[in-house]
Amino acid sequence: MTNRLIIAVSKGRILTETLPLLAQAGVVPTESPETSRKLIFDTSVPGVQLLVIRATDVPTFVDNGAADLGVAGKDVLIEYGGDGLYEPLDLRIACCRMALAAPEGFVLDGSRIRVATKYVRIAAAYFAARGIQADFVKLYGSMELAPLVGLADCIVDLVDTGNTLRANGLAELEEIMPISSRLIVNKASMKMKHEQVRGLIDRLSAGVFAE
Q1: Cβ contact 28:43 at 8 Å
Q2: What SS3 class is residue 163?
Q3: pLDDT under 70 in the chain at which residues?
Q4: Residue 202: CB partners within 8 Å, gap ≥ 6?
Q5: Looking at domain 96-177, which of 3.40.50.2000, 3.40.50.2300, 3.40.140.10, 3.40.190.10 is its CATH number?
Q6: Distance CA 42, CA 36 (A)
């Protein structure tokens, strides 16, 4: 049991961009996680399994030892908080940015504002650092609608191309931080399975930094 290594990866873009890195590290699922309805997959390495779950659950699984390693966006990790995880490697995948966006003409003038976001921890730190009082409306999707229907003055959300913002009459006002996906490791796994974990980290690192 102690020789088993479980890697948690979230569905969607992160999974798609993680699989080639794992393949370069010699870890290939025995069937496609992108087409199968299964949630746990054996791999080409005996004892190494891939767990495919929701992005927000990856830190929880790793922190609590249900997975030894995981791949999660920096946004998810900041919102999760906690100190039970190592973050040894920026995988440089699923890159985007956290940004403040609002309808054209909106100006931060120091008055109290309402902000729609899924990322309350990040947004609160951003506005606090600027001395702006903000009330937060937590949403999990369709963030761009909030200013259009009067639910909020502005939004804090992930932005890639910005096309969705523009299509809904919003403009990006400021980049809050760049976001990429990180490899995370359970602290106990790092200690108890050090050779296996360290070896995988090194192989993934070689793939990330390969020219």
Answers
A1: yes
A2: helix
A3: 1-2, 211
A4: none
A5: 3.40.190.10
A6: 13
